[in-house]
Structure to design on (52 residues):
C-alpha cells in the first residue's frame, strides 16, 4: 500500500496538482494538511504513521 502526504501553506493554495500526481503514481491513500508554516502541529503525518 502506498501512502502519500500533501501539505499546502494556506487555504488559497491548491493541492489538486499534487493529488493528481499522487493518483498517477498509484498512491492508495492520500493525507492532506492545510496549515501555515508557523503551525507546528501537523496531524496528517501522524495519521499516516498510525496506518501501519
Amino acid at each position: 500500500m502506498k501512502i502519500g502526504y500533501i501539505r499546502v501553506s494556506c487555504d488559497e493554495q491548491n493541492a489538486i496538482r499534487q493529488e493528481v500526481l499522487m493518483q498517477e503514481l498509484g498512491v492508495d491513500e492520500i493525507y492532506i494538511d492545510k496549515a501555515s508554516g508557523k503551525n507546528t502541529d501537523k496531524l496528517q503525518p501522524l495519521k499516516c504513521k498510525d496506518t501501519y
Notes: The mean pLDDT is 77. Residues 3-51 form one domain. The helical segments are 16-24, 43-51. The chain has one domain: 3-51.
